[in-house]
Each structure stands twice: as C-alpha cells, then as structure tokens.
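Q: Here's a chain of 331 amino acids. Please give me its 3D structure as tokens.
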Amino acid sequence: MYTGVSRKWTYKEVRDHSGKVASMMKQKFNVKKGDTVVIYMPMIIEAAFAMLACARIGAIHSVVFGGFSAKELANRIDDCKPALIVTASMGLEPGKEIPYPPIIEEAISLCTLFENASQTPRLICQRPGMEADKLNEFYTVYQEAMTAEEWQVSECEELPATHPLYILYTSGTTGQPKGIVRETGGTTVALNASMRDVFNVNREDVFYACSDIGWVVGHNYIVYGPLLRGATSVFFEGKAVTPTEKGACWERAERYKATGLYMAPTAVRVIKKLDYTGEYVRKSDLSTVKNFLLVGERCDPDTIHWLHKLLPHVYINDTWWQTETGHVIGG
C-alpha cells in the first residue's frame, strides 16, 4: 500500500529463500538450535523469511511489533537475550517514515539485564530508496549477505514436538511484558486444525488477515497457518482502511481473489462509519469471499448485521482467543 510494490512468491521460492537465510544465520552468525532471534521489522516479506528460517534450524524467534518504542524493545531484548537481531532500514506509517536503526541502538543502550546487548549482531534489510546509512560495525546488510554463493537451503533441524517455536510478549493485565512461549508440535497441530475447522481454509484458498506479524494473529494466521493448509497468504504493509481510502480493504480482496478475510471488529466499525451505505463494498467484486472472521474483541450485533446485509453470501464468525492460548479456541 505504502510503496505500491507487489511481489508474488511460490511455496518453493519461500522454502528455498528462507532455507538460505537459515543457512546464513547458522554459518555467518553462529545461530544454533535453542538460540533466540529478535525480529523487529515492518510488514515486508523478509520478516516472514526470518521467522521461517528460525523455525527451520530450531532457533526461537521473538517478533517485536515494529511500532513499539525503544523502551518496549529493550524490555524484550533484556528478557530473551538474542543471539541475533533482524531489522529493516525503515518502517512506514501513514504520512511518515520511521528509521529503525536509531530505535535499535536506543533500545540496546537501555538494556540493563543483558550484559552483551551492545555486542549482538544486527542483520538489516535495506529497503529500496529508504536505505539506512552510518551503520556501526555490528550491522550486516541482508541483501549483501544473501548474495554469497555458499548459502544452500539448510536442512530442517530434527526437533522434539515440545521444542519452542517462538516467544511473543504480551502485557496482559500486569503492564509488564510477559514472554509467552509456544511449542512447535502443538502449535502446528492447532493451527492446521483451526484453519481447517474454524476458518474453512484449504488448499488453493487465499487468506487475507488484516494484522501484523508483531501480533499473534500475524504469527499464526498470516505466516504459519496458511502455509500449513497449502493456501495463499496476503502479506500486506498498510492499514485495513483509512479516511482517504475507504474501499482499500475490499479492493485488495478483489485484487487477490481472497476467499477468507480476518480483521478486528474495531477495524470493521471504522469501515462501517466511513461507508455505512456500503458504496465501496458494492464497487468491488467480492464473489470469491466465503468467510469473514473477526478477532480481537466481541463484535457488536449492529456491525455483524451490517456485514450480513452487505455480504449475504459470506459466513461470518466472531472468533475468540488471545496470545496466551496461541490459537482460536472459540467462535
């Protein structure tokens, strides 16, 4: 949305590229099974490659939402003590650019529990036209590192089902970030089952979850869940809707022939407020959409009735779960 750039990746391309990233992590940065890797990135595909690379070699990824401050990032670095930090040169928000390296460096300076924080290697993806300069000696540029011919697709590490897949921090009710640890085997089974039985997502479907990989929805239902089901996932940098782009969500659903949509009731209420008559809904061909799923908080009846009226052919499911449960447990 922000850059106007669209890229398409096949399953084989995702496997091969993330496998080479895994090989680079192991050989260049000595990332081993059981090590933690912090990923502080915007919604660009390289973030998903980093996650999948970690899973391939048994490293535990801890994705930090790119909108979090240096203090919040420092709390997470202090707690999980990463062997590597993966980031990008820039994040984008409506009307502004957010350089990430200064946030990374400030976060590292705020760490009090991780004595070697300042020595942690940083792998940075330089975004075209938004490159960072004046990087210190601890930074390695992703694009340059990936040109090395020695990186082969890394073999998958053999792991017990109970091996941690990721750590995701949530404030919960205490205000102090708590690291929720998800195990590989149980997470895989639960995501496959919930995508199949609750979301009705199967091979050849196109699933568009309006979220960010910094949240559990993004982990489970943008990256891992669709891949487990053989479906296509829409990986999107931007907002579900803005006052100047009232039909953006529906236009993207039409463009990618989405069969499933997933977003928070809050986002739907914003869309409803901006387009109560459904003018922008009717402008788009949404005939491929069969499921509209909601997450984040209970959806009010008026909003559900509004969706039913405008999308009478679509099954609407208000799901319930949270970071602590790891996957959908009610709908």
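Q: Can you summarize the key feature?
A: Residues 11-159 form a domain with the Rossmann fold fold (CATH 3.40.50.980).
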